[in-house]
Amino acid sequence: RELFRALPRFSCDPCMTYIILGGLGGLGLELGDWLILRGARNLVLVSRNGVRNGYAASKLRAWKTYEATVRVVTEDVTTKEGCAQLLERSEKLGPVAAIFSLAVVLRDDLFENQTEENFVDALSPKARATRHLDA
């Protein structure tokens, strides 16, 4: 019986840098795992508060076993200056291949109870960061 080596559908260039806004949230950490398992070796995790729990700390330790360089930064990506600093720091690891925007200000509620104010509060930071990073 002949066996074939399976290749992942998506692979990351180990020389490139991958930025995850909201990188220390649950989804951000899972995306980080996914990228590392597909070859990423330079991750920049953006978080307003930095590492605040054991799960995030354990993920960062685990990624070191893959010889990954992971930077946790707290730049305010809702400002033009914060985005410029983020990109400058990230590019020191290698050219930026991708930016994943997972950050969110949580204002969840049932749809029928959602207010315009809560929606704007939740979406505005993501929209501002996207505008500055896309400039």
Specify the biggest β-sheet.
4 strands, parallel
Order of SSEs: EHEHEHEH
What is the average of the pLDDT values?
Answer: 92
Rg calculated over all Cα atoms = 17 Å
* H/I helix tally: 4
Helix percent band: 25-40%
CATH fold group:
Rossmann fold
Query: Order of strands across the widest beta sheet?
Result: 3-2-1-4
Output the structural class. Answer: alpha/beta
Q: How many structural domains in the coordinates?
A: 1
Provide the CATH top-level class: Alpha Beta
Could you give the distance between the termini? 54 Å
The CATH homologous superfamily corresponds to NAD(P)-binding Rossmann-like Domain
The CATH architecture is: 3-Layer(aba) Sandwich
Shape: globular
Low-confidence stretches: none
Strand content: 15-25%
Number of strands: 4
Summarize the structure.
The chain is an alpha/beta fold and 135 residues long. The chain has four helices and four strands. It has helices at residues 26-37, 54-64, 80-91, 116-133, and strands at residues 17-21, 42-46, 69-73, 96-101.
Fold blueprint:
Elements: E1 17-21, H1 26-37, E2 42-46, H2 54-64, E3 69-73, H3 80-91, E4 96-101, H4 116-133
Parallel strand pairs: 1-2, 1-4, 2-3
Task: Please explain how this structure is put together.
Residues 17-134 form the Ketoreductase (KR) domain. This is Ketoreductase (KR) domain-containing protein. It holds the Pfam family KR. It comes from Photinus pyralis. By secondary structure, the chain is of the alpha/beta class. The chain has one domain (17-133): Rossmann fold (3-Layer(aba) Sandwich), CATH 3.40.50.720. The protein is built from four helices and four strands. The chain has helices at 26-37, 54-64, 80-91, 116-133; strands at 17-21, 42-46, 69-73, 96-101. It has a four-stranded parallel beta sheet with strand order 3-2-1-4, with helices on both faces. Strand 2, helix 2 (54-64) and strand 3 (69-73) form a beta-alpha-beta unit. It is globular and about 60 Å long. It starts with 16 loop residues before the first strand and ends with a helix. The model has no long low-confidence stretch (mean pLDDT 92).
